[in-house]
Amino acid sequence: DIQVTQSPSSLSASVGDRVTITCRASQTISIFLNWYQQKPGRAPKLLIYGAFSLQNGVPSRFSGSGSGTDFTLTINSLQPEDFGTYYCQQSYSTPVTFGQGTRLEMK
Amino acid sequence: QVQLVQSGAEVKKPGSSVKVSCKASGGTFNSYAFSWVRQAPGQGLEWMGGIIPVLGRTIYTQEFQGRVTITADESTSTVYMDLTSLRFEDTAVYYCASGEGVKWELPNWGQGTLVIVSS
């Protein structure tokens, strides 16, 4: 199985900050890396698919980059509604695997 | 875009089974791959397995192999997840999710079904 390691596990930031979350796969996964945001009590929401493609309706302050084994989610100019937990997911091969999550909290 | 509506919360005894349903609407059922993802209280997301109805193919993670069965009923556009031999640690929210075609990125999610295993 492909392991996906996400860092950091938690992060404190302020409105307006630029935030970066990274994800590393245990083997090459091309660009089959997706990012999700989850708010408490809600289902996850797909933000980025295929490493860098923005899902419909997702604000352009979210961006993704990377290929192979190393990937990054960047949030520019953090907004109050961006606080929550972020997960990466590899969809290169089954079983699909998620990162452990990054909890983004307000400083 | 497909909408996914799951069945309601369940309370089950250890050793029993639970069957959660997920009804799809607003799309072509056979154009989707469906996944089941669970989330234990305060924990992360765990992919349990998936089904591709048009191919009649199911995939399970090793952790759940032998305890989980995922099925699809095209006539009702419904996907099911059956988990047997329930343990206390199976207490979680179970999500149904779908992608487009034979892809496992998940743009569409159900509302989640809470399963509590308690004696």
Give me a quick take on this structure.
The complex is a heterodimer of chains A (107) and B (119). Chain A has 107 residues and is mainly β.
Secondary structure tally: strands of chain B: 11
Question: How many E strands of chain A?
Answer: 11
**What level of helicity do the residues of chain B show?**
under 10%
Q: How many individual helices of chain B? A: 0
Report the average pLDDT across residues of chain B.
Answer: 95
C-alpha termini separation of chain A: 36 Å
**What's the N-to-C terminus distance of chain B?**
40 Å
SSE order of chain B in H/E notation?
Answer: EEEEEEEEEEE
Low-pLDDT residue intervals, each spanning 5 or more residues of chain A: none
Beta-strand content estimate of chain A: over 45%
Largest sheet of chain B: 7 strands, mixed
Could you state the oligomeric state of the chains shown?
heterodimer
* Cα shape of chain A: globular
Largest sheet of chain A: 7 strands, mixed
Most extensive chain interface and residues per partner: A-B, 23 and 24 residues
**Which range best describes the helical content of chain A: under 10%, 10-25%, 25-40%, 40-55%, 55-70% or over 70%?**
under 10%
SSE order of chain A, one letter for each helix or strand: EEEEEEEEEEE
Textual characterization of the structure:
The complex is a heterodimer of chains A (about 110) and B (about 120). Chain A has about 110 residues and is an all-beta fold. Chain A is about 0% helix and about 50% strand. Chain A contains no helices and eleven strands. In chain A, the strands form two sheets. In chain A, strands 2, 4, 5, 6, 9, 10 and 11 form a seven-stranded mixed beta sheet that branches. In chain A, strands 1-3-8-7 form a four-stranded antiparallel beta sheet, with no helix packed on it. Helix content of chain B is about 0%, strand content about 50%. Chain B has strands spanning about 5, 10, 20-25, 30-40, 45-50, 55-60, 70-75, 80-85, 90-100, 110, 115. Chain B is an all-beta fold and about 120 residues long.
